[in-house]
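Could you join me in thinking about how sequence relates to backbone shape in a protein? Would you write everything just below, so we can both look at the same thing?
***
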Amino acid sequence: PEKAQALKDQLMAALAEMDASRPYLNPHTTQALPNKEKVCQPGKIERVGNTVSLSFKERGAKVVKGYLFYTKN
């Protein structure tokens, strides 16, 4: 437990220094996650020129921030 806490403290300090977000849980995991059913559901995705947008449906948890990762691959 002490080593885990030390590593967590080190990670949080590095993230704060870079003004980065905390890691998030993988929604596709096979393990049970609390409130998994409340995570937003992706909707329509579209691209117009160089602009990519998407819609989503909230399912209980309020969305306050999001990340869109886009690749042409």
The radius of gyration is 16 Å.
